[in-house]
Design a protein that fits this description.
Layout: H1 2-5, H2 8-15, H3 23-28, E1 34-38, E2 41-44, E3 49-52, H4 55-58, H5 67-79, H6 94-104, E4 111-115, H7 118-135, E5 143-147, H8 156-161, E6 178-181, H9 186-189, H10 196-214, E7 219-224, H11 240-250, E8 254-258, H12 272-276, E9 282-285, E10 297-301, H13 303-316, H14 329-344, H15 347-363, E11 371-377, E12 380-385, H16 397-409, E13 412-413, E14 415-416, E15 422-425, H17 433-457
Parallel strand pairs: 3-13, 5-6, 5-7, 7-8, 8-9
Antiparallel strand pairs: 1-2, 2-3, 4-10, 9-10, 11-12, 12-15, 14-15
Helix pairs in contact: 5-14, 6-14, 7-13, 10-11, 15-17, 16-17
Bound molecules: pyridoxal-5'-phosphate.
Pyridoxal-5'-phosphate binds next to helix 7.
């Protein structure tokens, strides 16, 4: 116990606030200390290896030891470790990276604004949309609509876009002017006998009604993740984005694609918007943009929004939105290398090949007695637990948490989500077929072990 008390993990818990942790529980059971990484694996301080089935936070797409990216960072640190892109200054590769991003964007984009995190990027989007509507003389058109259980970050504005109740509790969120519509989780939310298309239409109609009730002249934008990550890898039901975008066009409401998880190959195309036919006016990128080797995120906006911003800043005298370390040169060098490697190594081709094995193994769990449903696209997927497949009754929360821990004991890190009982997989994109098999073999053993415990200890359905 005393060794544990003096451990690196205990020191961390004693001095550092750990996001998403139960702070009280962490004082009793210190966090796992991750000390090294190689390929798709990370190693704890005792040298035990784990397949990182969720790529850290759905982000380390090139794994944990890509030398080409490390070299890009070191080279830039030596040449110019810091400069900014504010006032009348810029840095060597920032404009070039923006150009590369525009070239791969899922819809015509005009300009890029870099931030340090996905939350900051979505926060910035809220400000840009306000600025835009003020610029074009629509000062009332300011409300944002997001989805229940959508995740867009945790700053005040991005946390208000987020639709996860526990992330609002006691933070006094959402702020006024942020509204949430239906959760497009077909398996859980569709009415009995409702087809996917009909479910999508119902959600689009609900959005339409909300905009009409609020007043179309007050609703500025709608934001969505192409595939909802933190909600439990919720892939859109058939026809969903087509129907939603028709409603947005009807009411002149901007479409924001939050590509923080889906961007840079995760769904088998460069962006989730490519996979699902989304034509965003604005989009958010983070995570895979730099394989998370550096904190960098960004926003891409269309020409109509950029032109209005130019005119407005001419009138006001300044575009007064800036971060000291946005487009940080080391982060930019890393992101630029990542984008190059995506092309040079044909990462999309690799993802499409390996995802066949990934999805085959993932869906192979659908018949397991503990599993309600499975879903996935590209290299992102979820296995959703259910105490009863037919009634869709949920397990007590302890079950998914136990499964997550047993996976970890057996050398696999995955994520268990709160909105659904989904065990989420989003491994580094570089994963091989053999590693996919190893990952799901570990999961299969863990699932069977937890099934035995559920039967033995009576850990059952949620009360
Ligand atoms: C879809 C989505 N948007 C935004 C964010 C926020 O990004 P960050 O954690 O970098 O602030 C996340 C983080 O998980 C995310 O999944």
């Amino acid at each position: 116990m005393s060794a544990r008390k003096n451990s690196t993990g205990a020191r961390a818990a004693a001095n550092l606030i750990h996001g998403y942790g139960n702070l009280a529980a962490l004082e009793e059971a210190p966090p796992l200390v991750i000390a090294a990484g190689k390929g798709v694996r990370v190693f704890d301080e005792d040298g035990k290896g784990y397949i990182e089935g969720i790529a850290g936070m759905w982000c380390a797409s090139f794994g944990f030891s890509e030398e080409a990216i490390v070299e890009a960072a070191i080279g830039q640190l030596r040449r110019m470790p810091y400069y900014h892109t504010l006032f009348d200054k810029t840095t060597t590769q920032a404009g070039e990276l923006a150009e590369k991003l525009k070239a791969i964007a899922p819809a015509p984009m005009s300009h890029v604004y870099f931030t340090n995190s996905g939350s900051e990027a979505n926060d910035t989007i809220v400000k840009l949309v306000r600025y835009y509507n003020n610029a074009i003389g629509r000062p009332k058109k300011k409300k944002f609509i997001a989805r229940r259980f959508g995740f867009h970050g945790l700053t005040l504005a991005s946390g208000s876009l987020t639709g996860v109740p526990i992330m609002h509790t006691d933070f006094d969120l959402p702020l006024p002017g942020f509204l949430h519509v239906g959760f497009p989780h077909y398996w859980r939310e569709a009415a009995p006998g409702e087809s996917e298309e009909a479910f999508s239409q119902r959600l689009a109609d609900q959005l339409d009604r909300l905009i009409q009730v609020e007043g179309p002249d007050t609703v500025a934008a709608f934001i969505a993740e192409p595939v909802m990550g933190a909600a439990g890898v919720v892939v859109p039901p058939r026809g969903y984005f087509e129907k939603i975008q028709a409603v947005l066009r009807k009411h002149d409401v901007l479409m924001i694609a939050d590509e923080v998880i889906c961007g840079f190959g995760r769904t088998g195309n460069m962006f989730g918007s490519d996979t699902y036919g989304i034509a965003p006016d604005l989009m958010t990128m983070a995570k895979g943009l730099a394989s998370a080797y550096q904190p960098i995120a960004g926003v891409m906006i269309s020409e109509k929004i950029y032109r209005a911003m130019v005119e407005q800043s001419r009138r006001i005298g300044m575009f007064a939105q800036a971060f000291t370390t946005s487009a940080h040169p080391v982060a930019v060098a890393v992101a630029s290398k990542v984008v190059d490697l995506m092309h040079e190594r044909d990462m999309l081709g690799h993802v499409r090949r390996v995802s066949q094995r990934f999805l085959e193994r993932l869906h192979g769990f659908a018949g397991h007695p503990m599993v309600g449903t499975t879903r996935g696209v590209g290299l992102i997927g979820a296995i959703e637990l259910a105490a009863d497949k037919t009634t869709k009754e949920r397990f007590a929360p302890i079950v998914k948490e136990t499964l997550r821990r047993v996976c970890q004991e057996r050398g696999l890190i995955i994520r268990a989500t709160g909105a659904t009982d989904a065990m989420c997989f989003s491994p580094p994109l570089i994963i091989s077929e053999a590693e996919v098999d190893e990952m799901f073999d570990i999961f299969a053993g863990a699932l069977d072990e937890v099934a035995r415990r559920v039967a033995r200890d009576g850990l059952g359905a949620a009360a």
